[in-house]
Amino acid sequence: MKALFSMLIAGLFSLQLIAQGNGKWDIILKLNGEELAGKVTEVGDDEIKFTYAGETVVYKFKKADILKVTYSSGRIEVFNKAPEPSVNPASGSNGSASESKSPFSLEEHHNKVAILPFSYIKDDQTASDELGVKVQNECFAFLNKHAGVLTILDPRTTNAKLIKAGVTKENVKGYTMEEICNILGVEFVVEGMVVIDRGQQSSSSYGNMKTTDNYNSKNNSGTYRTTGGSTTTSTQYYINNVTIGVYNDKGSTLFSQERKSMLNLQGEYKSALDYLLKRTPLYSK
Q: Which 8-state DSSP code applies to residue 175?
């Protein structure tokens, strides 16, 4: 009876682990295409310590054998580049469709990132395309300095590919992120929006006093006149909100957050933009 009860408890525990899904685990993707689900307990200089899901034994894997780790939080840490596609020596070019990919079935666009032109809305009105491209370039400049082994497509290349594919800001919502990734030939896509709204208006006034002395020294008399005045200045404050989403070529959302800028002047969204980019899984110190 005790044995049956123990089996039931073990079965329920196993079902609970399955129900939790991979979203609760860290996923190690090795260079040979093997995926390991569990918990990364330590990342050292040359190796990673890892326990499999539902186990307690600690295993060690060389970082040289690991392509990347996708943590349960959604953050991705890349350690090595994907193997290059195989080449047919006889023909001097890539072979069949199956040979055009790496021998480990990793897509050719692996580790590539594209940044879409940002949506830019001011006072509930869509701003010019130039402002959206401006933020796109700022995003590229920041991520390109912290890309690690990732390759960030420059905005000009990204926008040219979108235009050639007939993708515009008017119809882009009709495409899935998986389709956008395939059009651009990337594994990850960054999409964002900047929204600027008028906030409170502050006014301040200050006054001044002026005294005129018309003293007459001959008869020891005089008149005194005091005048006053004030100056008023007003400052218009703005609320700057930035939203960033990161998606992969499987259509999954890896990151989606919104941030309000600490600065409340018009166009002061940059601090919020940098804050969010540092927290995406694409950022590498």
A: S
Q: pTM of the entire structure?
A: 0.57
- CA-closest candidate to residue 154, choices 210, 97, 112, 100: 112
Number of neighbours of residue 55 by Cβ within 10 angstroms: 11
> What are the boundaries of each domain within the chain?
20-78, 112-198+236-278
Q: What is the pLDDT of residues 144-202, one digit of tens each?
A: 999 988 999 999 999 999 999 999 888 998 999 999 999 999 999 999 999 988 776 66
Token pair listed for 94: 């890539």
Residues 6+ apart with CB under 8 A from 116: 136, 158, 162, 172, 180, 189, 190, 191, 192
Pairing of strands 47-52, 35-43: antiparallel
Under 8 Å between Cβ of 7 and 15: no
| Residue 90 three-state SS | coil
Asked if 20-78 and 112-198+236-278 have one fold, the answer is no
Architecture of domain 20-78: Roll (2.30)
- CATH for 112-198+236-278 (3.40.50.10610, 3.90.930.60, 3.40.190.10, 3.40.30.10): 3.40.50.10610
pLDDT in tens, 202-219: 666 665 555 555 545 555
